[in-house]
């Protein structure tokens, strides 16, 4: 915790609030760090520093955030954590920036909407001479922990009774001693504007507990790596050849294994980082601008026998339960480093506004109590897409906040614009804003604009460079200064910390990427920078992988 004021102020501990469904490990780590738990009977509603729950927060919760507080979710991140939404967003990215961009995700069909397309693809493959028919995997779009998964090759075995996603099954996984595995990579996003992504150096390698066998597609212990399934298998506690007991390794052990077989794993991790950046880039323009949040994702990555990484899915609120000693080693340290990443200062223990310029919210000053988890919410399919009413408020307040820093007369007209949008829904807030910006300026507006250029720390006028992406509908504008200073930037150079504990910054990876995400997300420019990065990585790496293929299939 950073020190920035007199020692007498550090007597008050930091306070955490947890929803009842949060794993006990979170409470244990916070107590180990000297935090105290929030008491609803004894403390004021805003007298806390961290609120952690498995379900999403409402926009009103984000709206009432204080400078000393953090929430463990951004709004609308379900856009990549539901399997069907993820498939749609990656498909859209491919359509705009080329099919080679997202080759890390298997071909996908969302049922029942894509049933005709799937049958056409299935029939085409069956009729192709000399081509071995593909294997397919069917997953319910809103279930987790391996539930409801079906693997099939013949269409007659394909049966479903809910909304599912069907993808080509990766039938050539890289095996260790004959066992299939995947990687659980922890990714923390401290900001979507500017986009700031950290990956965790340590993680989990999860194994199936029976040897891989395509002749027994119904054997979940051979084809699925979910711990929630394999811990009930007959071989879970046995000492398996090359694997050991249980079904998990740490990344540290995994790296040691690769190097002991003379495999250079640098290219693998570079490719995985590219997958993470491109996947998050797909939703960044549509995430509402909010202060003092972070999001921990669990990326599931499978490696095939050519050492190519594939994205299987992205998990919302990845499991933090401690099922074994390896979980304890990885997850408790992960939680400690997350708290370090949140960059609390000693003034945050006071839990009060400091200075005349501090506001209680990025979009308004009215305090609205945080809600508790919806009784109907589930951790499998959190419904965090905002309601129509909340979306209307978000759009209005975002425009108001954007114009608020530019001057009084501009602010008044912004409020009127919000009212007009409700009265005349056909005239959108975006179109009204565009009209306003294209009109000749009055003298008062010109003065306001010139004042906004003199705001401390502002690189651009507050209303400049408003960018609305052409491929995702978004009214959450990212080109204005938040009223709460970002916690994730260094006070020295106003840049993200390059490393915090075992969290390593992977985006922004250069100055061009930083600038392209700082004042409205410029997806095209960032994609170009990632392409440059990938071109530098690929040629020597591909040759290395081919040379080491005999080691990668070691059994």
UniProtKB/TrEMBL annotation:
Keywords: ATP-binding, Ligase, Nucleotide-binding. Pfam families: TTL. It comes from the Eukaryota. The keyword Ligase applies. Residues 443-454 have a biased composition (Low complexity). InterPro entries: TTL/TTLL_fam. One of its GO terms (molecular function) is tubulin binding. One of its GO terms (biological process) is microtubule cytoskeleton organization. GO terms for cellular component: ciliary basal body. Residues 424-462 are annotated as: Disordered. PANTHER family: TUBULIN POLYGLUTAMYLASE, TUBULIN POLYGLUTAMYLASE TTLL2-RELATED. This is Tubulin tyrosine ligase like 2.
């Amino acid at each position: 915790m950073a020190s920035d004021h007199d020692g007498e102020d550090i007597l008050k501990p930091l306070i955490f609030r947890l929803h009842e469904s949060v794993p006990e490990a979170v409470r244990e780590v916070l107590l180990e760090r000297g935090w105290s738990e929030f008491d609803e009977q004894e403390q004021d509603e805003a007298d806390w520093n961290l609120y952690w729950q498995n379900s999403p927060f409402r926009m009103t919760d984000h709206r009432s955030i204080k400078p000393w507080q953090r929430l463990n979710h951004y709004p609308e991140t379900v856009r990549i954590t539901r399997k069907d939404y993820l498939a749609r967003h990656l498909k859209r990215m491919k359509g705009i920036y080329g099919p080679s961009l997202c080759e890390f995700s298997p071909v996908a069909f969302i049922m029942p909407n894509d049933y005709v397309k799937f049958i056409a693809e299935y029939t085409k493959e069956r009729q192709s001479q000399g081509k071995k028919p593909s294997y397919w995997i069917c997953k319910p779009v809103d279930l987790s922990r391996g539930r409801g998964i079906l693997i099939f090759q013949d269409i007659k075995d394909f049966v479903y009774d809910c909304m599912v996603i069907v993808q080509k099954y990766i039938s050539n996984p890289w095996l260790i001693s004959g066992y299939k595995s995947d990687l659980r990579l922890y990714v923390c996003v401290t900001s979507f504007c500017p986009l700031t992504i950290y990956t965790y150096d340590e993680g989990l390698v999860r194994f199936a507990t029976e040897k891989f066998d395509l002749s027994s597609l119904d054997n979940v212990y051979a084809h699925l790596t979910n711990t929630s399934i394999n811990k009930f298998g007959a071989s879970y506690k046995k000492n398996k050849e090359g694997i050991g007991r249980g079904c998990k390794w740490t990344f540290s052990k995994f790296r040691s294994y690769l190097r002991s077989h003379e495999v250079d794993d640098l290219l693998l991790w570079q490719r995985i980082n590219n997958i993470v950046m491109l996947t998050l880039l797909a939703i960044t323009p549509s995430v509402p601008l909010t202060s003092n949040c972070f999001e921990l994702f669990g990326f599931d990555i499978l490696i095939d026998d050519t050492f190519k990484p594939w994205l299987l899915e992205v998990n919302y609120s990845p499991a933090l339960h401690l099922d074994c000693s390896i979980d304890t080693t990885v997850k408790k340290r992960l939680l400690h480093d997350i708290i370090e990443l949140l960059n609390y200062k000693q003034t945050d223990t006071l839990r009060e506004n400091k200075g005349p310029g501090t506001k209680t919210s990025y979009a308004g000053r009215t305090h609205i109590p945080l809600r508790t988890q919806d009784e109907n919410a589930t951790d499998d399919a959190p419904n965090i897409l905002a309601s129509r009413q909340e979306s209307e408020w978000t759009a209005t307040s975002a425009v108001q906040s954007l114009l608020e820093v530019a001057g009084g007369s501009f602010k008044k007209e912004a409020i009127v614009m919000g009212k007009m949008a409700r009265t005349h829904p056909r005239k959108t807030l975006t179109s009204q804003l565009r009209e306003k910006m294209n009109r000749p300026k009055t003298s008062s507006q010109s003065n306001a604009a010139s004042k906004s250029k003199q705001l401390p720390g502002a690189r651009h006028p507050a209303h400049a460079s408003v960018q609305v992406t052409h491929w995702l509908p978004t009214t959450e504008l990212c080109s204005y200064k938040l009223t709460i200073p970002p916690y994730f930037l260094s006070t020295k150079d106003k840049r993200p910390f390059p490393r915090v504990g075992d969290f390593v910054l992977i985006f922004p990876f250069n100055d061009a990427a930083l600038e392209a995400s700082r004042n409205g997300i410029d997806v095209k420019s960032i994609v170009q920078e990632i392409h440059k990065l990938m071109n530098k990585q690929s040629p020597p790496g591909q040759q290395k992988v081919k040379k080491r293929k005999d080691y990668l299939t070691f059994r």
